[in-house]
Write a structure and sequence with these properties.
Blueprint: H1 17-20, H2 28-44, E1 56-60, H3 62-68, H4 73-85, E2 88-92, E3 95-99, E4 104-108, E5 113-118, H5 123-132
Length: about 140
Amino acid sequence: MSNEKEPQLPIKTRKANALVLAKHSLTLQQNRIVYLVINKLRGAHDLQSDLFKTNVTFNLSAQELALVDEDNLKRAFRAGIELRKKDIYIKEGDSLLNTGYFNWVRHNPKSKSLDFEVSNKIMPYFLDLAKNYSSPLT
């Protein structure tokens, strides 16, 4: 039996209850993309910012996509597309909102990166996740 620890991805969040309790399951790559979005929200902006009252565009660099799937950037891109297609239902008072994680996803082959837009309708969901993530991985 080896005493070596498994290498940890340098992603600084863990699953929040909202993800654990979701009615759909996410692949490992999809979870990692969501984690990276949460890290961008937590690290780049005040979570109460007016910026989050509009649609927000994010970029995942080639280096970040390597964290999603180090062996296959195409698989990481497909995971982003699949997240765009996943239905999320959010109860808003007496109504039910149906949305996806992203409005659109764009692959940039020259830079090997992804751009994607998060709707202001789902931003409170992401912000709630960002506020409720557990402590960083060590």
